[in-house]
Amino acid sequence: MSAYLAILGALSKGIEPYGANLRDVAQIFSLPRGATDIVAELPQPALSNIINSFSFPSMGNKNISTLPALALRHASGSIFQEAHHHLVGGPPIDMFDYVGPARAAKPPRSVVHFTPPSLARALCEQALIALGDLQQRKQLIVADFACGSGAFLIEALRALERMNYRGRIILIGRDISHTAVDMARFVIRIAAEEWPGKGRVHLDLEVSDSLRRNENITADVIVMNPPFAQWQNMSEVEREMFTTEVRGESIGRPDLSMVFVLRALNHLGKNGAMAVLLPASVIEARSGAHWRNRISERSSIYLTAIFDNQRLFSHALVRVGALVLTRRDSRERTDLRAGNGPEDAGDALRALRRGRDDVGGSPRSTFTIRRTRQDSAAAGWSRSASSGELSKRAISSGLPTVSSMFSIQQGIRTGENAAFVITDKHLFALPSSERLYFRLAITSRGISEGRITKYSNVFYPYNMSSRLISSEEELKDKMPNYYNHLLKFKSKLLNRRGRNKNWWELSERRRELERDQPVFVSKYWAGPGGFVAKTDVNSVVLQGFGWTAIGEYKEKIGSNFADQDISAAYLAILNSRTFFSLVAEHAPPTGGGQLDMSRRYLERVPIVDLVHSYEKKLPVIAELALFARSRYMQYAQSSRLTTEDAEACIRDLFGLRDQDKSHLSTSNILENETVPYWLMPFIDRGLEGTDREYRVQVLIRLQELAIAGTYSEIDVALERAPLPQLAETSLMTLLRGTYRFRSRLSGWNNFRDRIAEEFERRGAPVEKLMIGL
Questions:
Q1: Distance between CA 503 and CA 493 in Å, rounded?
Q2: Over the stretch 412-440, which tens digit does the pLDDT of each residue have?
Q3: In 3-state terms, what secondary structure has residue 381?
Q4: Backbone phi, then psi, for 615, in 5-degree steps?
Q5: Which of 84, 196, 496, 568 could be joined to 200 by an S-S link, Cβ 3.0–4.6 Å?
Q6: How far, in Å, CA of 561 to CA of 519, rounded?
Q7: Is the pTM above the cut of 0.70?
Q8: Rg of the chain's alpha carbons, rounded to an integer?
Q9: Using CA of residue 246, residue 422, residue 329, residue 550, what is the dihedral sign?
Q10: Listed residue (107, 605, 169, 118) closest to 322, CA to CA
């Protein structure tokens, strides 16, 4: 490889690849000295033939000439990634036509998807923009911990050139492939020679396993396309890593790329930014919610992107997503979604570079880009979301917004949950004197269907006025057992910004949530049932957002849910589909029916004022309070209201009860949004059913998803499909179309049983229809 690159480098520089001249080329590109020795030993006629065939190839009946400098300038990403694919994944070959003995190709550790240059280019630009102060930085460290043949690092360098950056640049790359690192070193040297000039780029490329080796690297920008690998494709060591890093709390479809992102965040410096490509399911699926919560604890989301075209990556079918994260408090978030047409991704990326909200609705292109400022009511993108008609209607009827009644504060950031959050078993193994320094913590994972189903235990050495432990020596003296546990994480905790001295403390304790106890707590990403009542005053909010009543509402909306009907009624309202229909007009969806519940999105959402209309609405408030206590708080009292009755009451309160049928689909935004687009015709045609042609298309789609390993999208479809509304043919298409890979689907057995119940309800011949299933 090094010898071949030496020849290619000579051709790109216009140097004859013979003799002493070749040693100069090797020095320019930091190639091993042995590379030139190999070339010198080649028979000159054979070498001349190779160079001529490379320089003047034939294409059909046409003779063309190769321009290496031009190819390396404009197409190195594609060329070298393709070469890497053939060299690593294909049969053994020799660069100089020598055929060696046969050998078995070693399977790669995980599935490597080579980065489309257009995606790398756009993400590098977004990461550099997210820094906010690029031109003020005298030095910039850019790292890629799965660099491959250097596509991301090359695009980062090109982006800095376009942005006219004048500081020193350090490029750091790590990869487990010797071949990839050789290629990356070569193409980056060429780019650095051309710009920014001699001495301004320092290159640090090494063959290294970023998951197994923990280096002392702090980068300003991290750009990365990590290997994708689902659980069944991970090695035992990788599974152990995943369980340790993500702690097994991301159920469903774990992916190795999630570990790369968490590890990379450990190396991201203050005010830094990171751009990463991921499987779309990691960003969308509910099973990734815990992982996304951890990301939110340590960074702000600057951009999310989903590309529905599964053919963006060569050699693989996969739906890809992207994240740009920043250590800064980002005042703007961009949400991009590109359709599955061949031109959609390219058009969307070009629109992103133009820097405007945009919608591609031509026959050639389908994409949507939405930018939401912290002080803006602009809605995040939603495929089926309306233009805000429900919110306009509610506000025009005199309803206030959430920000006029509630303060929304993000919960604690620990900086390392594995260090500070412990299980009940671990807690009760500690002496009682050490257990005093822990609090019950409400987490997104512990919230289900409007109830707190599980508390966590978080180290919380604080009271309202001061720290309970003021030094490491005091910690060791008062909590020797827990101190030994914390020591295992000391190196990680020292790298957190602002915690070099008190490394054993939480990153953010959130004093404001101690001063003003929240009444309600929501998940980070939520749907109906995503709010709980905070009735334990000693508990803290670890993952999610605390809602505290403010101003004149503070006295009437409190934590005494047993006696305060208004508080309990608000719990019913916040957990309703009606309220989340309004949220969906402001907050971007994160997939699986979940909406981003950040303050910047929720502040402009309309809400009912029950305090000033208490006397007038007393009967409705009392009914909703009883419903909430029985449904979400498990009080002994029972409510006569069904869920649909409660929804009707809440629509009345919002002034939306008289909506005509054209608005009904908007009130069900969440249900429709979580159903994959290919299932929508089944729903739209209802009990009438679709024609055979479309059912065949769905079967093909299911097969493509299975081949690509995107089982999470199928799981979502089976879970969210409204069975009573679907025709028998539609149901059987989904059931029999997924039967062959049912073992890969976590919800398949439940889906089959639900269909059997639905057929029985319809009086259909269940045994006949379900035969063999």
A1: 5
A2: 888 888 899 999 999 999 999 999 999 99
A3: coil
A4: -60, -40
A5: 196
A6: 9
A7: no
A8: 29
A9: positive
A10: 118
